Amino acid sequence: MSEHKKSGLTRRDVLTGVAVAGVAVAAAGIPFKEAAAAPAPQKWDQTVDVVVVGTGFAGLAAAIEASDAGASVLVIDKAAMIGGNSAIASGLYNCANPKLQKKLGIEDSPELHYQQTLAGGDYRGIPEKVRFYAENALSGLEWLEKMGVEFDPKVFAAVGATYPRSHAPLNNGRGGAIISALKKQADARKITVKMNCALTAVIRDKCIEGEVLGVEVKDGKRVKFIKATRGVVLATGGFGADVSMRSKYAPQYDKDLPTTNVPWATGEAITYAQDVGADVSGMDYIQLLVACNYFTKKYGDLANLGIESAIFLNLDGKRYVAEDARRDILAGSTMNQREKVFIWLADDLAGKRYSLERIQQAVDKGLCFTAPTLEELAKLLENKMKIPAAEILASVKHYNQMVAAGVDKDFGKKKVNLKPLEKGPFWASPTQAGVHHTMGGLCTKTDTAQVIDRHGEIVPRLYAAGEVTGGIHGTNRLGGNATSDCVVFGRLAGQKVAKEKPKA
Question: CA-CA to 443 of 20 to 30 Å: which in 92, 272, 339, 340?
């Protein structure tokens, strides 16, 4: 029986973003050799212009752009299913889109996006890289639309985004919708995408000197050498699922903390790149996200209820944080609450903004609660979780009064995100934090996506994009910035690697 059947997860489930909970089974047994610099082989098993490692947003964007620039491209991925974290992500795409936002009364610009991204990461992002990202994010959205991705015109603020510039794939498509569209484009270009093919080494002329020549991979049970005459693009994501790697840099994020990541987000590509001289930055900047169901500790069981017509209540029935705060603030505040849990309470707008089907699935499993009236839901939470119903009702009443006044005098939630909780049915999702995003990674050149070594020099013919890199998000990533980061720099890497002069 295949791993897919064991988990109850199909490839279609991942691509449509419907089933997430079982995804952890799919690659649980993938073996990896210990990282070590590999010499060039006497004979190559395969030769292409460009090898892209990873099938997420960044990898597929790089592959498509390199192909469109005339390069032959091979995409490899160690997993059995395409997309990695991108396939199970929300797919929310942040960019300033003034033409669309003005219709909604939202003032925005690439400059504001730049300033807020830099500030959101405590000014530890590289300013020129953050500016490049913010100024090219809209063109990335327009490119995705050309690739066949449809976005909801109702721009809003994702959890942890702090500002309403998040674009959602239409019809609750999530990240799987983007992966599906990009895979169709790759297929149309006859780009080979090879799954179950794990990177085991980056091959360079002389270990830490000269040009990158290609990669060593484990294709099934066989070790192969693939020559890349133009270059290699690493787009393998972060290391949030590797307990030993993440706790090396942040010891507090040990095995007892759940993660939202697919289990193959283990970061060995970073190590392999270091083996040939690559430098890294910000490796201890690891983000938690309030995105795991309290009962199962799983990301896939979460009922995402948004931040507009929603509040976060602790087990005493009281608000404790601005729901539109930065992700590190949301997670840190939650970790300080009793049992490290909060109740994500929302009215019917949540069902309209997000996937009512997904929320109902959580309800059916007993992982989320709903009731026609707030009073009934408060009583249900009192029975299920011992939260005083009177405190819940008092907190909602007080919050709605502040919404009517236009000022959150308690925690400073932004006026643009202040919406009342008033229309039933009402929803409640017990939620906790989990390891979500690793902001650190490989150092890259801003306008080329080339990997930089520990001496500040370019590693010739080695490129990287997406979560495998550092320098964009600083200490904290704003919600919705990852998708646009991956697309902007994935496209750039593909365009630039294809311009390399082929090496015989």
Answer: 92
Length reported for the chain: 504
Lowest-confidence region among 157-171, 285-299, 334-348, 355-369:
355-369
> Across residues 368-380, what is the average pLDDT?
96
Give residue 493's Cα distance to chain centre: 19
Assigned token pair, 492: 């750039």
How far, CA to CA in Å, does 362 sit from each of 20, 26, 193, 323, 469? 12, 22, 34, 21, 34
Instruction: Check residue 226 and give left, alpha or beta (phi > 0: left; psi -120 to 50: alpha).
Output: beta
Relative to beta strand 222-234, strand 458-464 is parallel
Q: What is the DSSP letter of 43?
A: S
- Cα angle value 499/500/504 (rounded, 5°): 135
Question: pTM (2 decimals)?
Answer: 0.85
Say how far apart CA 114 and CA 132 lie, in whole Å: 9
278-308 in b/e burial notation, b at 16+ Cβ within 10 A?
Answer: bbbbbbebbbbbbbbbbeeebbbbbbbbbbb
pLDDT tens digits, 400-440: 999 999 999 999 999 989 999 999 999 999 999 999 999 99
In whole angstroms, give the CA distance from residue 278 to residue 259.
27
| Cis ω before 425 (30° cut-off from 0) | yes
Contact 233, 55 (CB under 8 A): no
Given 131, 165, 319, 327, the catalytic residue: 327
Dist CA 237 CA 139 (whole Å) = 22
Contact 25, 262 (CB under 8 A): no
- Hey, CA dihedral for 171, 172, 175, 177, is it positive or negative? negative
* pLDDT (0 to 100) of residue 28: 35
Check residue 38 and give its pLDDT. 82
CB 94 within 8 A of CB 113: yes
Judging by beta carbons within 10 Å of its beta carbon (0-12, 13-18, 19+), is residue 356 exposed, middle or buried?
middle
Q: Measured between alpha carbons, how far is 185 from 328 in angstroms, rounded to an integer?
A: 36
Q: Is 327 a catalytic residue?
A: yes
- Burial, 204: exposed, middle or buried (Cβ in 10 Å; 0-12, 13-18, 19+)? buried
Q: What is the token pair recorded at 409? A: 């005098």
Backbone φ, ψ for residue 387 (5° rounding):
-90, 130
